[in-house]
Write a structure and sequence with these properties.
Keywords: Oxidoreductase. By secondary structure, this protein is an alpha/beta fold. It has 22 helices and 18 strands. About 50% of the residues lie in helices and about 15% in strands. The N and C termini lie far apart (about 75 Å).
């Protein structure tokens, strides 16, 4: 800190964003003063829900033990109005519901404990500037006294209507604004340990569906935070009376849950704006840094703003600390870091909001359909961010084979490309792709292509051809699996499959289009092979429907064998292999598809029942015979080893009943 300045940083506002920023800066050894206009504890209109993302940030601030005193929230119930359907999504890392009067006080106390000076009843009235026009401090009113504090940076954590953002020229006028109201209710028994989210929300005055939802977030002693929130997406939304919407929502809750007839409102109905028009180019300038609601970081779909407030505070503190340490006058990387962290999430949320009728139609049509694709759709409504990979038990044999052949890294690169492509293209695709994937089979197919293409590190040719074709192969496989989820008839209690089938077909068609697009960039011949494979899988599906079974070998050969033959054909074409080589390797690919189908591992879900022992016997013998036809050279030995590793993994990973059945069958 320069000797002529009072502190390094002034933080305006002691809400979650401001206190998180102050705590991190103080912990890094910088002098910080927080100016908060209110006297804590004070009430704040909010849903009070702390998501797992919020809990991670609080843990980094050292508040995990404090948060443990509040009851955990272990899941989200998505309740679909008009269908009676409820979709439950468990939360792996529990959240919490903490009233903002308590939460904000705890955060500000933590910042103070780490060394920040927190002043309450301190209303900031303006900015001061140096001779160059850069912000050099703030003026504020404390009781009857007017005071000035000088600093290197001013952090605007003064909320959705940030006066600092306006004064510094960083504010923007936009129509991407939401509004919410909530009340605390007593005598709400049975809310349990779940967030309850109700869609769609309707305007009682017009009957129109609103871009928003209602919520019931449980608190201790049969109390709950109950509220409604909407986005203004149409001009007429400005006339919506949220108090009327709230009253109608509460009436619908009582009708749905008779045990809540005795619920009583505690305190006033309070509301708050939800600024959802984040712009990474307008978050810092001239010594001013915006965080939280002042940076317009409320999620447009969920209305969640605490996690973004906490994380933006941490990011701002890091950027400011670096600037202070090196004597910089600004934080040029802060906006880019916010864009990297939140940009895709905000765009995805707006896409879902703008297509909400379709999204809710899919969720409604499939409320009782227990298949992975539609479970993913329902989960993605409030979990549409790019997901992290869940922990998994590796397919030991195949993983060892990949490591031994130097292919673990390129196979992982294909998986990452699928995730990134899905998240960048359509908000619901990450969840859908994750639901459709069979990662063990995916790795084997990628290994088949790379092996046949001669793409091991010692022989890999320059360029992205092998990688593109591997990604294209998996996109095609996912597309064909998505098409399998087209519903022949409405689910129980539903009049239509229109939205659900539009989604399944659209996902499949989109993935297939991207597959063909990537293949065409490498060469037209690869598109021809993709097209033939697609036709064969469709033929197998139709044959299975006609027969009423998917267990017949000729059906499995077309539906599943083709998916494992395709990477062999593509890889052989890339490397210019001989016809005899291609035929022998393709036979192994088809047989690998048969053992996959016989082990019940092509798809996950109740519609897929492991096949009878006789199917495994035939598939196992087919793989043994195909492996015997491979050449007795390095390639043949490698492919046989891959086939044996995968077959062993299927035996190890099958469920108990399937494992017993498989173990009793002939070995290779």
């Amino acid at each position: 800190m320069r000797r002529d300045l009072d502190v390094d940083v002034v933080v305006v506002g002691a809400g979650p964003a401001g206190s998180a920023t102050a705590a991190a800066l103080a912990a890094a050894g910088h002098s910080v003063r927080v100016l908060e206009r209110s006297v804590f504890p004070r009430d704040k209109a909010c849903g009070d829900g702390l998501t797992p993302a919020s809990m991670r940030e609080l843990t980094s601030l050292g508040l995990a033990p404090t948060m443990a005193a509040y009851a955990p929230v272990r899941g989200t119930n998505l309740i679909l109005d008009g269908t009676g359907g409820t979709h439950h999504a468990p939360i792996i890392d529990p959240g919490r519901v903490v009233p903002r009067a308590e939460f904000d006080l705890l955060l500000s106390q933590r910042a103070a404990a780490l060394g920040a000076v927190v002043q309450h009843d301190a209303k900031v009235t303006g900015l001061t500037r140096d001779a160059d026009g850069r912000v050099s401090g703030v003026t504020y009113q404390c009781g009857a006294a007017s005071r000035t504090v000088t600093c290197r940076f001013v952090v605007a954590a003064d909320g959705a209507t940030s006066a600092i953002a306006r004064t510094s020229g960083l504010s923007r006028r936009g129509d991407r604004m939401g509004f919410a109201v909530r009340a605390y209710m007593d005598h709400v028994p049975g809310a349990g340990d779940n967030f309850h989210v109700f869609i769609p929300l309707r305007d009682p005055a017009t009957g129109c569906t609103l871009a928003g939802y209602g919520w019931v977030f449980p608190e201790a002693n049969d109390a709950a935070n109950i509220g409604v929130g909407i986005l203004r997406t149409r001009p007429e939304d400005k006339d919506v009376n949220l108090r009327t919407v709230f009253n109608q929502f509460c009436a619908s809750l009582v009708a749905r849950q008779p045990q809540w007839r005795g619920m009583v409102q505690r305190g006033p109905l309070s509301g708050a704006p939800l600024p959802c028009d984040f712009d990474a180019d307008r978050v810092a300038a001239g010594g001013v840094v915006l965080v939280g609601d002042a940076a317009r970081l409320v999620d447009p779909l969920s209305g969640e703003g605490i996690d973004t407030a906490l994380e933006s505070g941490a990011l701002a503190a890091h950027a400011i600390s670096e600037a202070l340490n090196c004597g910089a006058e600004d934080v040029p990387g802060y906006g880019a870091e916010l864009e990297r962290r939140f940009g895709q999430r905000m765009r995805a949320a707006w896409s879902l909001v703008n297509n909400r009728e379709f999204v809710w139609g899919v969720a409604s049509d499939t409320a009782t359909v227990d298949r992975p694709l539609y479970q993913a759709v329902r989960s993605s409504i409030f979990s549409y961010q790019r997901p992290s990979r869940p922990p998994e038990v590796p397919a030991t044999g195949v993983d060892q084979w990949l490591a031994g052949h130097g292919l673990r890294e390129p196979v992982a690169a294909v998986e990452q490309a699928l995730e990134s492509m899905a998240a960048d293209e359509l908000p619901m695709l990450p969840a859908a792709v994750g639901a459709l994937e069979n990662r063990a089979a995916q790795r084997v197919r990628t290994a088949l292509f790379l092996l046949c293409a001669g793409a091991a590190p010692s022989t890999r040719e320059a360029g992205d051809g092998p990688h593109q074709l591997s990604v294209a192969t998996e996109l095609a496989c996912l597309a064909l699996v998505a098409h399998e989820d087209v519903l022949d008839s409405p689910a129980d209690g539903h009049a239509s499959t229109r939205s659900a089938n539009r989604f399944a077909v659209s996902v499949g068609d989109f993935l297939l289009f991207r597959s063909f697009e990537l293949s065409a960039q490498v060469g037209a011949g690869y598109v021809e092979l993709m097209s033939r494979a697609s036709a064969d899988v469709c033929a197998g599906t139709l044959l299975g429907l006609h027969r009423g079974t998917n267990e017949a070998d000729d059906v499995a050969l077309l539906r599943t064998g083709t998916l494992f033959e395709l990477p062999v054909l593509l890889g052989a074409r890339w490397a210019g292999r001989t016809d005899s080589f291609t035929a022998a390797a393709a036979a192994v690919g088809r047989a690998l598809g048969l053992v996959t189908a016989a082990a019940g591992s092509w798809r996950c879900g109740p519609a897929d029942v492991p096949a009878a022992p006789s199917s495994w016997d035939r598939a196992n013998h087919a793989l043994t015979d195909a492996s015997a036809g491979l050449p007795q050279d390095t390639f043949g030995r490698s492919l046989r080893a891959l086939a044996d590793a995968y077959r062993g993994d299927l035996l190890m990973s099958s469920e108990d009943s399937a494992a017993a059945m498989l173990t009793a069958s002939p070995s290779s």
